[in-house]
Amino acid sequence: MADTADIVVVGGGVHGASTAWHLAKRGAGKIVLIEKDGIASGASGWSSAIVRMHYTLESLVKVTMYGREMYGNWSDIVGVGESGFRKTGFLVLFPEAELEHGHEVVKMQQRLGIDAQYISVDEVGEIEPRLVRDDVAAGAWEPESGHADGSTVANSFIAAARELGVDVRVGPEVLGVTSEGSKVTGVETSEGVISADTVIVEAGFRTSALLVPHGIELPITPVRHAIAVVERTPDFGDIHPVVSDRVARAYYRPERGTLALLGEHDPMRGPIDEEVEATKPPILDEEVSLMERFAHRFPGQEMASKMQGYTGVYDCSPDFQPAFGRVQALDGLFVGAGFSGHGFKLSPGIGKIMSDLVVDGSTDMIDVRPFRIERFAEDDLLLGGEGYANRSLA
Ligand SMILES: Cc1cc2nc3c(=O)[nH]c(=O)nc-3n(C[C@H](O)[C@H](O)[C@H](O)COP(=O)(O)OP(=O)(O)OC[C@H]3O[C@@H](n4cnc5c(N)ncnc54)[C@H](O)[C@@H]3O)c2cc1C
């Protein structure tokens, strides 16, 4: 019997899972999701899963607002599983050079109704007195932000999608997107062909290779990032908020119990590595550097013990912003990739947008045109303004 679907979603990370669930909620028809390795086996499973709304681009702030609402009210909205959301607050530390831009971002967030504050160094000290502040020029504070869990979110979206009838297949690999003339006809997998009028590729770094045979360009650089997990010293006290240290270019996120998770700010800092599926040993130099930065910011934490180190791969686009939506060259083809190390918090909102675009042909959440995949070939990159606009915050 012919294997057919209305929609095929390629990839079982947070983006594929969110899109499939949102489509099923809309009653979009017969949906098949294909994941070659395991749900959340890619970047989603390694994600630090920081949930903040501090973005240069107003459109992405709106996408994060949708995500923050969903993560904080998972059982009411999704109803199955959990997001692992923990409201720790999100504190940004600015160097002098970024003050103006940081202030502009906070003003824009306030205009959109977000509880965000631009704060003095003294106020930073009131929120987190343990921080060294003599090299900090000012801060931004989002009390409603925090972090969630990438694996839990992807698996919960998948479980909820299955309950709504999505056919989730783990194991087959999508070998190609098939087409006739300028129209998508389905996918060829390692277990046979599936016919479908709509194919959505959300396969992380592997997205590009599925587009190449159709002459579609999506330049993605896979950059392997180190994460260090340390146990804070027993005298540290209560957990700290998620800290985005823009002075030292690192982030510090509380992990369960007495652990802290340390990561790098610069999306391009790390080896380029196309073996994205491989689990590789920690990058020791990077971990030592992250631990030094954490100890500089939190005095006494040079005595923190290292518990674990691991790596995960960012799918970096040329402007460090995602490409999503309809692909002009092939009717029925949609993509969502190039999230450049900041796609976790965006995944609920992008899933909603993708479902709107597939079902209605448009979305009222944001103007999606600036995020079109064609911008790379057109050299119309999304730099989003001054300051740290073209660099993600992770
Ligand atoms: C170390 C690290 C820390 C991060 N921290 C944060 C953070 O704090 N906050 C934040 O917002 N973001 C963060 N990110 C980024 C975020 O995790 C990613 O942007 C997001 O998880 C990407 O999800 P995805 O679904 O697009 O990709 P992935 O999770 O990579 O999923 C793609 C899936 O597609 C499958 N696949 C690929 N090719 C095929 C094929 N041909 N056939 C079938 N299946 C296929 C893969 O097996 C994979 O499971 C971090 C990322 C990393 C690596």
Automatic annotation (TrEMBL):
GO terms for molecular function: oxidoreductase activity. The keyword Chloroplast does not apply. Gene3D superfamilies: D-Amino Acid Oxidase, subunit A, domain 2, FAD/NAD(P)-binding domain. It holds the Pfam family DAO. GO terms for cellular component: cytoplasm. Residues 6-357 form the FAD dependent oxidoreductase domain. Keywords: Oxidoreductase. PANTHER family: FAD-DEPENDENT OXIDOREDUCTASE DOMAIN-CONTAINING PROTEIN 1 (PTHR13847:SF287), SARCOSINE DEHYDROGENASE-RELATED (PTHR13847). This is FAD-dependent oxidoreductase.
